[in-house]
Structures are given as C-alpha cells and as structure tokens.
# Entry
Amino acid sequence: MSINEVRWLSECGSTNAYAKEHFEEFGPVGAVYTTNQTAGRGRLGRSWVNAEGRALYYTAVIREPLAQPATLPLLASLAVRDQLAQRYGVDCQIKWPNDLLLNGKKIVGILCESVSYGYQMQGRGIVCGIGINLAQPQSYFDAANLPNGTSLELQGAKVDLAADPQWLAEALTDFGFDRPLYTFAREGFAPFRDEYKAACVNLGRHVTFDLPGGGTGSGTAIDVDADGRLIVRTDSGEEKIFTGEVSVHGIYGAVEISHHSRVSAGRPAPGALFFSPCEVCGKPGFSHGFPHMVFAGQRLWKTPAPKIPEGRGAFAPSAKRRRK
Ligand code: BTN
# Structure
C-alpha cells in the first residue's frame, strides 16, 4: 500500500481536470489514474485520444513548492522512463522536453498544468498528467491519424492490462515523483541534468523550431542547460528554447512549437510575475497555462517560493521499493 494516495477511477473525462478539481484532497504528493479517459487533453491545445482500457492515463498532484517548477515536465519524463525500464526492460529516449520515444515512435505524452488553490487562491501547485500507450493495436494509431505513435505492446513489450496500470501508477507516484522530489523540490533540475541528457534524443541532431515573430529557425541541438532549456546552435548564434516541441530531423516528422513556449534569449526579467503578459503575444501569463508562467519569471509564486527545510518528511526517500 502506498503512503501517497493513488486514486483509481473506472472512467474519467480528464485526469488532469479531475486532479485540479480535487486538488486539496490529495497530500503533498498524490495521484489519480484511469484506463478510460473520455476527454483527454494534450499539449498545445490538442486532444488526447482515449484507448478504452488499453492505455494508462495518470496525473500526479504536487502540492509542495518547487524551486524550479517549470522543469517538472523534464523530471516527469525521467520518472516515466525509469518505471517503464523497471517494468518492461525497455530503453526509451526522451524527445525534448518530455515525450518518450521507443524505437523512434511516441509512447508517452506529458502535460503539466499549474493550479491555484486555497485561501484567495494564493496556493500554487502543479498537476502532471501522463498518458502511456500500453497495448493499443496499430489500427488505433491509424484511425486516430497518429503515424508517429505506438504502444509498448506493438514494440514487443509484454503488457498485462489487468496489473500494469495499478503497478505503474503506484510506482510513478512513490518512486517517480515522491522520491526524487526530495531533491528536485529544493535543487530543481540540475541534479537530474546528466541523466536527462544521456537519454535525450535531440542532442547532436539537427532540429527545427518556430521563431516568435513567425517562420522557423534551425540548427544543431548541443545541450540542455540547468534550467531545462534546449540549446540550439544556429548560423546566427545560440538559441535557448525553453519548452514546447521541436522537430528532430531523422526521428519523425516536424511538429509545431507554440510561440508561448519559447524564450528568445537569456532569462526573463528578475522579479517578473507569473501573470505578466506573454512577451510574444501580450496575452496574460496564466491564460495559456504552464508555458506562459515559465516565460514570465520561471516561477509560479508572486513572492519568492518558500524555502524548503532539509529532510522534510513528505519527500523523505521511501525505504521500500516494490518490484514486479
Ligand atoms: C501531449 O500532448 O503529448 C501530452 C498528452 C498528455 C495526456 C495526459 S493523459 C493523462 C492526463 N490527462 C489529460 O487530460 N492529459 C494528460
């Protein structure tokens, strides 16, 4: 039995929406999951198609303040990668910032969203939604027009639909999020950077990305920095791309990147508030969700995030590690 609540729903519109609605019912770390998600949401306003029992739809609830919340999607991709390796022995690659690929095709998508809660909505939290393609047949991807998608089963993994969703949901919550959060909450992405870079498929490859004023840029992805940004060497210098999607030549087809997801150069102005306007389109920061908050200050709090004491109980590393 997990010390963190991992709530199962037989069916759900969106586990992210559910987690936001029920946010305060969960502890510092908790989760909700289903295998039947009827109104799933993807990144950049896309939908996430239901696979009726053949995929896992999971959302982690993080109520604790994080030193670098904008990089949670990158941590999440490592968390899922690790648990899929444990369960199935597969070696996934990460397509920056947080898609997981197996044999060059997407098997996992991640959508993090911020949450305001509590007295005068001053509390700041995050939900981290993860869709894992477990055992959809090829006909599912064909019908949904997802030529770059695949499932673990299609790639040869032995999937047990009766047991794996619960196992993965509990393992992700306890070992994917709770345990690393002990470090991540205080130190951010930097301690995980080397592990991330080793799994990142973009590095050393030619990539294409949208420019904020229109058009596209391209170059060679050379690094992921301590703030989680993809560093791309172009003919005109280095670009620091914060979050969004870039096409990776030779992996699969080009996909767009939201202009709200890109920082043109350097860090946002010190002290900028998360509801400052987007520096590209001028819309209020929170109106487009998580990436905007990244734009406007790389933090989710109006005041500096509280310091997190050493050895905080909720994120103390768990002693147990349950395995198949
Ligand atoms: C992407 O577009 O790649 C991200 C997809 C994220 C889908 C997951 S499934 C669980 C959670 N609930 C949602 O509505 N979306 C996320």
Remarks:
- Residues 253-324 have pLDDT under 50 and may be disordered.
- The radius of gyration is 19 Å.
